Every structure is written in structure tokens, then in C-alpha cells.
């Protein structure tokens, strides 16, 4: 059943599955042993699924979505043949097939074993997995009113399907028997972890409930699936429907490349003005940074931060209240005091109190830095005779002025050296140096893609030439594509049938597409995000696990690998060879490089505080009694209690906080970015201290072997200790951000 059938429905809509490659250190004897083991397991399972026919329907478009990937690279999705009319019948047929597979396992008269229960479950769900590969693209990259109608219709149906499996008493009894049986003690460590993850997936999702409680749990999941879907679609509606238009005489301060993109946006969706700021971060952020027109800045700020909060049919506040109430009721059926306690039990933090401990250790320093930043900005406003106090729509604009005054560093000047294509080449270089990967472009048309802007690369081992997988890049914002940046995949690494499966991984961004013939120039922050998401792809591609379920991860740990990769953007090898001027092709001057490095902790007050505010509100939302909660009021009162500065907002206001309300992947878990950042800062120091710096071969091998290749086959705390030789502590994070270090050496705070 592959762990994907044990998680919430809407978490699947993004299709975030792990990817991988065989560890370069694997020798022939190990390969032979693995093949022998797979043959024995397959023989042990025998004819368990022999009588089950492949999932098919009378709908030809549906059968395309259900059929095995074919073509080059051991098979790729049929994006050249897909049609949205097939998705509903395809998933309906796939669910029926998956339930038949589960029944076959349940009705097996033999005693439960690792092979006939756990591995058998791993072998189920192929069709629904392929269906969700297409679903994820329609949901995140190519949404439309037609798909949203289908999505809303299927969300409760899918939830019922997952409940039938999660709450299957006979199936859980077999899994429990393996988990508690003598055979468990004889299994390899990765196999034991697979058994535990499978057992816990059932136990944490209502399998232990009985009678009315079991039915109520299923009903709650069904309703939550509907609410999560509606929340996400409401946000997407506001992102698509709102824009701020302006003319040439209102464009003072805006860079040429932004103006060209804004003109293209206005032409694509005409309004009252020659230029348009769309309702996405990639459009909002540069406008608020450079636009001299304060009234327009306020309009753009209010448009962006009011997504999902307009008091109309697309308003999300009532949905949030119901989501919180249902989540609270559901976990109390399982005996937990609140949703956060349930969510964190198997995360690195373990408890909400531990997560709070980390955030509260950093919060005072972050807020103090905001006060310093605001004071510096206010001096400029007063000197210019502005006659106003810094407001949220002023922060980015005046911080840019402080940057210029304090470091003589102009963000627009830096952008001229940050070309998207060159950044991609830099990422490939880093992947080659650390992971021994080679990325080779695949000619257009060889591998089907879902949109003409998407391009594809072959990934191989530099030394052996062995095929690792395929990497897709979907870089530009467009109608129907959700905002932000993310990584996903269509197929992960496994050796379940004795054959190593190649990886199909994707990166997705929302860069503003430039005017024809113009380079894509991005900010330093966006360049870091590009590297960040590529880190997720490398995590997929590096996998050497045998079982699909082990390609997953622990949320407050999996961000660590991607955050760490951001550090290579500022290494000399990248700067000297890939950050070249868009017009002249000249390398970035040493003087500018020194300014960038000198300003490395610049604006940390803003960046840390806006993030932590969202993380703290998320955690508090999921720890209180939500009966009668008013989300807007709760958000305001919580921020006031925290002492949130008036001059900036939380990064994601509640009505558009998709991380926690359009699904459950980050709910009571947004703190995980900070938890992972402690690991990141600590691991970065390991490279900085090594003889070869960030390209040290020995440290890189330890990184890949212990922190990337093992995916979820090893407990994250153990994996980190294997890399670093100890637990991480927050001192590295505080140094990294330029914050004072609390306490003394005798009371260092560590995270495990």
C-alpha cells in the first residue's frame, strides 16, 4: 500500500514523493544479496494478487492515466496524451483496484509475516500513485475551474477511500502482529523502521478506534478533505483575480526588468493601466522594494496580505474555524490533549513545548533586531521629510535604502548578476561536486511535459554513467499555478522487485516571465529559494532505499537538506564562475562580492520575525480549545501577546496560510523550518571548518551517505549524529543570523 495510502488525502494532491539513487559505495555482493532477498520475498508472497485485474475503465483518457509510465528513461508520464476528462474515472478505478489488493492481503490464510503483509502492502497502489502524479500537476501547476470542480467532488470520496484502508481492523491486526512478533527482531534496521512506520501510520490515523468513534473519525476526515480543498482554491482565486494596475508616471524607482514583466502581465490580463502587479510574492516583493509611490505600495501590500480575507464567498475565516474544531475533535478521539501534541509525537521536536522552546529562544533577539532596523529606516524617512512612521508597506522599500547607505549595496545591481539560466548551471555544478551527478539537457519532445515552459534533464552518475533519473523544471508563474516554489516527484527510488527504479523529480517556481529575448533576473532571496528547492530534488535523487515508504521524511528534518543547499550560492566557485553580468558577461566584481558577504546578516530582524510569527501562531492555533474561535481575532490577539512589531506582518496571514490549512503537511509544523535551520547552521560550520571548505570531499561524502541517501530509513536524530558526531545546538543558528547567543557554555541548548 506504500505509505501514501496512510496519509491525508490532500497531502497527496501535491504528490511529494521521495526520489533516489543507489549509494555509490554499494558493491556487487550487496546487489546480489538484494536481488536474492527480493526473489525470496516475491516467492513468499506468491500468487497473492494473481486474481486481481489491472485497473481499467471504459474511458480511454482514464486508462492513459492508469497505465504504466512508458517511453524513455524506464518510463515517464504520458503528458502528451493526458486529458482532464480521464482523472475522475481513473482515480475511481484505481481506488477499486487498491481496495481489492488490500482485501487479498487481509484474506490471506497464512500467518502475518514481513513478506506477506508489510511488503505486500508496499506492492499495492501503483495505479493510484500514477493517477496522483497527474492530479498533482493539475492541482498545483495547471489548475482550472473544470479541475477545481472535479477536485471538490473527489476530495470527500478520496477521504472515504483512505478511511476504508486506515480503519481496516483485519489489516491493522496483521500489521500489528508483524510489529509485535518474533520475526521483527530478525529484520534489518531499515526493515524494522518500515514495519514501525507502517504500524504507526495506522495507529495514528484511527485504526485503534471502534464503533461510533471510528465512524466519526472517518466523517471528520471526509469533511476536512472538502475544507482543505476549498481553502486552497479560495486562495488561488484571489491570486488570479486581483491585480494592481499603474501607468508610466507612477513607476518611479521600478527596475527595467520588472517594468517589462509588469507590462507583459497587463497585456495578458488587461486592466486600468499599462502595467500590472499580480497577486503573487514574486511580483509583490520587488514592487514593495523599489516603488517610490507610497500609495501604490500600500495598495499592493493590502492586496497581497488580504488574500482569502475579503468577506466574500472566497473568504477563508469560517473555513479555518471549522478546520481547527474538526482537527481538535479528531485527535481527542485518539486520546491526545490537542492537535499539536498528536502532530509532533513522531517529529524531531517530539512535543509542542520543545518546539516552543526553540522559537522562544530566538524570538527576543529577532524582535530586538527589528527595532534596530526600524530605527535606521525611520532616520531616513525623517531626513527626507517624509512626515510618517514606518508602516508594513514601507519596510522593504526603506530597508533597501538602508542597505545602500550601510553597505553601499544595491539589490537591483546584484540582480544583474543573477540570471536564472546561470543559476541553474551553478546548481548542476554543485550537484556534480557533492553528489557526483551530471545533468544533461534532454531535447524537447523526447520526454512529454505538461506545459511548453517545462524543460527536462537526464541525471547520471559522473563516474559510471549510470542513469539516476530525470529532472523537470517548471520555472514561470502563470494562470492556474499556485504561488511559491516547491519540489515534487512522479517516481521514487526503490528495489522492491529486485529492479532499481529511476527517479522522476521536479522543481517548480513562480518567476515572472520576462519580455521575449530578455534574461530572467532574480533577487538574491529568490536565488536562495531556487537552490533551496533544488536541495529537495537532490534529496529525492540521492536515495538508496529499498522500500517506497522509506522515501518519505520527518517534516522538521526534511527542510534541513534543502536549507543547507542554499549555502552554496555564496561560495566562491559559484560566484566566480556563474554570477556574471547579464549584458557584459563579466564576473561579479570583488568589491560587490565583499558587500554581499558583509551584508549576509542584513534584514535578519524582518526575515526571522515574520517567519517566527507565522510559526508561533500556527502552533498556538493547534493548542487552544477552538470552540467558537474567531481566526482573525485570534491572530491579532496572539500577535499582540507575542509583542509583534507593528511595522511588519506575519509571513503568511491565517486566511492564506496554505501550509497549514490547505492540507496537513505543515499544520502545527511550520516551526520545522527553524528546527531544520539549526541543523543547517550547524552542518554549514562542519563544511566551513573542513580543509576543502564547502567542497570538501570527505565531508560531502558523509553528508550524502548519512543525511541524503538514507531518506527515512534512519531516525533523523541518529542520522545527524552519524554526520556530525553529536547533536546540533542553537548557537550555530544565532551566530549565523548575527544574533547574541543566550546563556553560557554550560547551558547550551541542543536539539535532537
Automatic annotation (TrEMBL):
Identify the EC number(s): 3.4.24.70
The top EC class, named as a word, is: hydrolase
Required cofactor(s): Zn(2+)
Family per record: Belongs to the peptidase M3 family.
Which residue range or ranges hold the Oligopeptidase A N-terminal domain? 93-214
Cofactor annotation comment:
Binds 1 zinc ion.
Q: Which reaction does it catalyse?
A: Hydrolysis of oligopeptides, with broad specificity. Gly or Ala commonly occur as P1 or P1' residues, but more distant residues are also important, as is shown by the fact that Z-Gly-Pro-Gly-|-Gly-Pro-Ala is cleaved, but not Z-(Gly)(5)
UniProt keyword terms in alphabetical order: Hydrolase, Metal-binding, Metalloprotease, Protease, Zinc
Protein name listed in UniProt: oligopeptidase A
Q: Which residues form the Peptidase M3A/M3B catalytic domain?
A: 288-737
Q: Does the keyword Phosphoprotein apply?
A: no
Q: What InterPro entries does this protein's entry cite?
A: M3A_DCP, MetalloPept_cat_dom_sf, Neurolysin/TOP_dom2, Neurolysin/TOP_N, OpdA_N, Pept_M3A_M3B, Pept_M3A_M3B_dom
Amino acid at each position: 500500500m506504500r505509505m501514501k495510502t496512510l496519509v491525508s488525502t490532500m497531502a497527496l494532491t501535491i504528490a511529494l514523493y521521495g526520489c533516489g539513487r543507489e549509494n555509490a559505495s554499494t558493491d556487487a555482493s550487496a546487489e546480489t544479496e538484494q536481488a536474492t532477498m527480493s526473489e525470496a520475498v516475491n516467492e513468499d508472497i506468491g500468487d497473492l494478487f494473481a486474481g486481481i485485474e489491472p485497473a481499467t475503465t471504459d474511458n480511454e483518457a482514464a486508462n492513459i492515466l492508469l497505465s504504466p509510465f512508458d517511453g524513455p528513461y524506464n518510463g515517464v508520464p504520458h503528458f502528451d496524451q493526458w486529458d482532464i476528462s480521464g482523472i475522475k474515472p481513473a482515480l475511481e478505478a484505481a481506488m477499486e483496484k487498491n481496495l481489492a489488493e488490500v482485501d487479498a492481503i487481509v484474506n490471506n490464510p497464512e500467518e502475518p509475516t514481513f513478506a506477506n503483509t508489510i511488503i505486500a502492502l508496499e506492492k499495492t497502489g501503483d495505479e493510484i500513485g500514477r493517477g496522483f502524479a497527474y492530479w498533482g500537476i493539475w492541482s498545483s501547476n495547471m489548475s482550472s475551474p473544470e479541475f477545481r470542480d472535479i477536485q471538490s467532488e473527489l476530495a470527500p470520496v478520496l477521504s472515504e477511500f483512505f478511511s476504508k484502508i486506515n480503519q481496516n481492523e483485519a489489516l491493522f491486526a496483521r500489521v500489528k502482529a508483524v510489529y509485535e512478533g518474533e520475526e521483527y527482531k530478525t529484520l534489518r534496521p531499515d526493515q524494522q523502521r518500515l514495519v514501525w512506520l507502517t504500524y504507526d501510520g495506522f495507529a495514528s490515523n484511527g485504526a485503534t478506534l471502534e464503533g461510533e468513534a471510528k465512524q466519526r473519525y472517518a466523517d471528520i476526515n471526509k469533511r476536512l478533505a472538502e475544507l482543505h480543498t476549498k481553502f486552497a482554491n479560495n486562495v488561488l482565486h484571489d491570486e488570479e483575480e486581483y491585480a494592481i494596475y499603474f501607468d508610466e508616471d507612477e513607476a518611479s524607482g521600478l527596475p527595467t526588468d520588472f517594468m517589462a514583466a509588469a507590462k507583459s502581465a497587463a497585456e495578458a490580463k488587461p486592466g486600468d493601466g499599462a502595467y500590472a502587479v499580480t497577486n503573487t510574492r514574486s511580483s509583490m516583493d520587488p514592487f514593495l522594494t523599489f516603488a517610490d509611490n507610497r500609495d501604490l505600495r500600500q495598495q499592493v501590500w493590502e492586496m497581497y496580505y488580504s488574500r482569502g480575507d475579503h468577506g466574500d464567498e472566497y473568504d477563508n475565516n469560517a473555513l479555518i474555524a471549522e478546520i481547527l474544531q474538526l482537527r481538535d475533535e479528531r485527535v481527542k478521539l485518539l486520546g491526545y490533549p490537542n492537535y499539536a501534541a498528536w502532530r509532533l509525537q513522531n517529529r524531531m521536536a517530539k512535543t509542542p513545548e520543545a518546539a516552543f522552546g526553540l522559537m522562544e529562544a530566538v524570538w527576543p533577539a529577532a524582535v530586538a533586531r527589528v527595532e534596530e532596523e526600524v530605527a535606521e529606516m525611520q532616520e531616513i524617512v525623517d531626513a527626507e521629510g517624509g512626515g510618517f512612521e514606518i508602516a508594513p508597506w514601507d519596510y522593504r522599500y526603506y530597508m533597501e535604502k538602508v542597505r545602500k547607505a550601510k553597505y553601499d549595496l544595491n539589490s537591483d545591481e546584484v540582480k544583474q548578476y543573477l540570471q536564472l539560466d546561470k543559476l541553474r548551471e551553478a546548481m548542476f555544478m554543485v550537484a556534480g561536486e557533492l553528489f557526483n551527478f551530471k545533468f544533461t539537457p534532454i531535447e524537447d519532445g523526447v520526454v512529454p511535459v505538461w506545459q511548453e515552459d517545462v524543460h527536462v534533464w537526464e541525471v547520471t552518475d559522473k563516474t559510471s554513467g549510470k542513469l539516476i533519473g530525470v529532472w523537470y523544471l517548471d520555472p514561470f508563474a502563470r494562470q492556474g499555478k499556485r504561488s511559491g516554489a516547491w519540489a515534487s516527484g512522479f517516481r521514487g527510488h526503490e528495489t522492491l522487485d529486485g529492479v532499481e527504479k529511476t527517479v522522476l523529480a521536479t522543481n517548480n517556481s513562480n518567476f515572472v516571465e520576462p519580455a521575449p529575448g530578455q534574461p530572467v533576473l532574480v533577487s538574491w532571496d529568490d536565488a536562495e529559494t531556487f537552490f533551496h528547492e533544488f536541495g529537495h530534488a537532490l534529496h529525492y535523487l540521492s536515495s538508496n532505499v529499498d522500500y517506497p515508504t522509506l522515501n518519505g521524511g520527518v517534516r522538521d528534518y526534511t527542510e534541513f537538506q534543502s536549507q543547507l543547499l542554499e549555502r552554496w550560492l555564496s561560495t566562491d566557485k559559484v560566484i566566480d564562475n556563474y554570477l556574471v553580468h547579464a549584458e557584459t558577461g563579466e564576473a561579479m566584481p570583488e568589491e560587490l562580492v565583499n558587500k554581499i558577504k558583509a551584508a549576509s546578516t542584513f534584514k535578519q530582524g524582518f526575515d526571522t520575525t515574520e517567519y517566527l510569527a507565522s510559526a508561533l501562531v500556527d502552533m498556538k492555533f493547534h493548542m487552544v480549545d477552538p470552540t467558537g474561535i474567531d481566526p482573525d481575532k485570534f491572530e491579532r490577539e496572539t500577535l499582540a501577546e507575542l509583542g509583534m512589531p507593528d511595522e511588519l506582518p506575519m509571513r503568511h496571514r491565517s486566511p492564506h496560510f496554505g501550509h497549514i490549512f490547505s492540507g496537513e503537511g505543515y499544520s502545527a509544523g511550520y516551526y520545522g523550518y527553524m528546527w531544520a535551520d539549526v541543523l543547517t547552521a550547524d552542518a554549514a560550520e562542519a563544511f566551513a571548518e573542513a580543509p576543502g571548505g564547502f567542497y570538501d570531499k570527505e565531508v560531502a561524502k558523509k553528508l550524502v551517505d548519512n543525511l541524503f541517501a538514507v531518506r527515512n530509513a534512519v531516525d533523523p536524530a541518529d542520522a545527524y549524529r552519524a554526520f556530525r558526531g553529536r547533536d546540533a545546538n542553537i548557537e550555530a543558528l544565532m551566530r549565523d543570523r548575527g544574533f547574541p547567543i543566550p546563556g553560557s557554555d554550560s547551558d547550551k541548548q541542543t536539539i535532537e
